[in-house]
Amino acid sequence: MAIRYEHIKTCKQTGARIGKLHTPHGTIDTPIFMPVGTLATVKTMTPEELADIGSQIILSNTYHLWLRPGSDIIREAGGLHKFMNWDRPILTDSGGFQVFSLSDRRKIEEEGVHFRSHLDGSKLFLSPEKAMDIQHDLGSDIMMAFDECPPFPAEKKYVKDSIERTSRWAERCLNHHVKEGHDKNQALFGIVQGGEYSDLRAQSAKELVAMDFPGYSIGGLSVGEPKPIMYRVLEETVPFLPEDKPRYLMGVGSPDALIEGVIRGIDMFDCVLPTRIARNGTTMTSKGRVVVKNKKFERDFTPLDPGCDCYTCRNYTKAYLRHLFKTDEILGLRLTTYHNLYFLLKLMEDIRTAILNDQLMDFKEAFFESYGLNVENPKNF
Amino acid sequence: MAIRYEHIKTCKQTGARIGKLHTPHGTIDTPIFMPVGTLATVKTMTPEELADIGSQIILSNTYHLWLRPGSDIIREAGGLHKFMNWDRPILTDSGGFQVFSLSDRRKIEEEGVHFRSHLDGSKLFLSPEKAMDIQHDLGSDIMMAFDECPPFPAEKKYVKDSIERTSRWAERCLNHHVKEGHDKNQALFGIVQGGEYSDLRAQSAKELVAMDFPGYSIGGLSVGEPKPIMYRVLEETVPFLPEDKPRYLMGVGSPDALIEGVIRGIDMFDCVLPTRIARNGTTMTSKGRVVVKNKKFERDFTPLDPGCDCYTCRNYTKAYLRHLFKTDEILGLRLTTYHNLYFLLKLMEDIRTAILNDQLMDFKEAFFESYGLNVENPKNF
After folding, report:
1. Contact B27/A at CB under 8 A
2. Rounded to whole angstroms, how far apart are CA atoms A167 and A172?
3. Predicted TM-score (pTM) of this structure
4. Omega of the bond prior to B31 within 30 degrees of 0, cis?
5. I want to staple A313 with a disulfide (CB 3.0 to 4.6 A). Which of A21, A303, B85, B372 is the partner?
6. ipTM of the complex as predicted
């Protein structure tokens, strides 16, 4: 078994849990947020900076690396860890989400998906077996089964057909993975789908759990549905997942949803949100969002977040950050990215401490109040 | 006196010199290369990274900072050092070079230069006094007098009128600087001009030296003239400059010109070349230029320069750098910038060691051979 989940404690206030996930490249404290390094780099950051801010694991994208530089090149480099100079754990997605995002240029068949490259329009084919082969080339610690991620909203009939195919594909992924002998060093997760439909989520979870994966992802959320629907689906899905395996909620990275997800039993999260908004000059602070380009910061010689002890906040003012963004300087993107990732990783650390102290509900209330989430129509993150 | 030049040794093989330049923010070993931080940031780099690679002093641009964020904002921030978090010496240019580059939108008068902003076309006026005021706001350790930099080629009559005005402007700069009382903490350099004309260079140098500046710049070179002309002008100009003051050759950063400049008595250099070409994927190595985007590096899992011990070369392969450039990833720009600056700063360190050992000519020959400069029509850097 490539990975092992060790349960440490359950919060008496919320039922949230802390644990340790042991992987071939080291142990992760859960619940955890995973920075996204789509193209074998977490945008603007070095691996040393990621380690400095406490990144225990990162995510990278199968589809994008398959196209560029090509999974054969990464295999020849000695795997993704060596290629990108990151020696801690890596999780890779299956490519499914990206392929299904290309809705106008793909055709789904039982065998797999025919589609055209978003780069040059060339014809490509991705199947459960192919998604495994690529991830074997990458050598990630945690791999994802090839699934279909239905859009929101979607007709129930469509979603039912889809989850049943996703289950068949999951079995093919598992068979191919085990047959290829990579299951000792790479852990394959099944992905629960089912849209907003309670019974389909239950069906999907049960079918996957019957295949005994070393971990389970919950996909098809954070795709445009209102947050209350996401939270309801989590409440209806997690009970079907085994206690002794890690649970990964895909594509979630707003502070409120991280806290709500943990309360509902989630151990792992990823999202491009903190890095993407950082490159647009939007930052997350203990008092909510700060958009550094704002004119009002022109002569503000205080840090982004006076309560934050990250490199950016210890050394630079909002006036300087604003100047860097107004002049399109790369250092600006670096400093806000660094800060946002630090903020979310510190949030997860605070969440783990709150669970340890049986105070996660208290922590949530204080955080929501400070972040400005306890108002009518709060901003989305 | 804000700065003091201390002569250490003259190379018996070449007549080149090493020295120490004492400034309010620390002592610099000369000859030195100064990375350029146009807009209060050396593009892609943090101050800590600049220090790591041995940057002893950086340059920043008066004209650009005057426009963005505004010199008043930098003054209110506590000066440029504090604004950008750099506590080592800073040299600022006078804005003259940038203003005169806007050849189609400026009008030169005795009082100063009327021109239009390159950003929004707004009307601006820069004079010797204004250039001093801005640099006082910035608080740089070394300031430049406001000069005119004639283009190459230029008619002798034009250049003669120009250097005489530049001398009158230099005197106004000096008077304003001393009157404002900043001469204790900020050293003002005069800039020798004169195009390719030996007698005009001599005239300009003599007029400025008579004003007793604490250092002298040589401007109007590396503006398109062939290198042999630049080297001849240096040979004809340096003898007019005092032995006990630093000499700064503006805008030069190719390895061959750095070595040739040092041999001709230059102590300080700056240029955007290493950082600009780095962002285009072109690097300087001990074996000459390497363009990382080249297809031939697709599966090259060796460092950029196997003989280099910089962060980039110790941790990444050409295949990875190529991938980052092909995918427009910011980390690529960071890694090549870091390497190129490291390469030039290491070159200057090697030059200083060669002078100490009276071996600069031997060093030059070995370097030129290795870098590929001893061939017919070598590449330009």
Report:
1. no
2. 9
3. 0.98
4. yes
5. A303
6. 0.98
